[in-house]
Amino acid sequence: MSKIIYPINPPNSHLPILVMGIGYEDNQPHMQRKDGYPIHQIFICKSGEGTLRVNDKTHIIKKGSFFYLMANSPHEYYGNSDKWELRWISFSGNQIDDILTELKFDSNQLGVLSISNIDKMEASLKKIYVSLKSEDISGKFIASSVLYEILVDLYTMIHSKQEDESSEGNSIINLIRLYIDEHYNQDMTLEELSDLANITPQYLCKLFKKHLGLRPFQYITMKRIQYAKNMLSDYTMSVNDIAHKVGFSDCSYFCAIFKRYEMVTPTQFRGL
Q1: Which among 57, 76, 138, 205 has most CB atoms closer than 10 A?
Q2: What is the pLDDT of residues 170-227, one digit of tens each?
Q3: Are residues 59 and 155 in the same domain?
């Protein structure tokens, strides 16, 4: 069963944000829109499980999660369980693009996120539904204000999650960097480094790229070159000895890597 309201816009409906439709499907049918939907939409999963395909990505939609679809964004979604229950709201407005930009809503980046307080979200959607169903002219304005509150709540939730992930990422990076700084002259594998933080090698590479702009082994190489530069000030040590002390088993390779990073050979650097 489904309940849907498509409100008729009053003459004075030039609002910055405007609810254009709201409803729910207690068993969402398969929906495929190759050209997308002409206005923005937000969906909340009440129960069951479904699949969303958008921006060449596939997401699993479970109870308590929401997803946002940008206007005219091609998409497809369908249920994976016997009963997939969705709440949805579609919206527009003469300032909606500026509002969504300010709140950093982008279906390419948001993906699918869990809602921390599903009961509050349900209550807000119900308030919009009742306000529009009354057909009172003020209902449109009430619905707009409640929708804005929903968008702000989602913004807060999204960026709190991103800050938590960023904080966790920094902690992992600091742990791995400390280990590398202490063992830079030893052989180490990507698997060994990722095991230190109990994460996958792929995720470790992703964190290094995000936080440092480098791959893990690029960081190790830079650290070795840094120590080598300090050692080159000691003229009692040969270049070959320095190469082995910083973790290079082959002196020729060390010299080639050193020149790649410093634009001069170790011997030339020593003479500067």
Answers
A1: 205
A2: 788 888 888 888 898 999 899 999 888 888 888 888 888 887 788 889 989 989 998 9
A3: yes
Task: Give the range of the structural domain holding residue 240, as residue numbers without chain letter.
Answer: 218-271
DSSP assignment, residue 103? T
Residues near 191 by beta carbon (within 8 Å), at least 6 away in sequence: 201
- What are 123-166's pLDDT values in tens digits? 888 889 888 887 777 888 888 999 998 888 887 776 655 554 55
Please give the helix or strand (H or E) that residue 145 lies within, else none: helix 137-183
Residue 117, domain CATH: 2.60.120.280
Tokens of 90: 């579609």
The count of structural domains within the chain is: 3
Contact 25, 17 (CB under 8 A): no
Q: Report the sign of the C-alpha dihedral through residues 231, 236, 239, 242, in that order.
A: negative
Q: Around Cβ 109, how many Cβ atoms within 10 Å?
A: 11
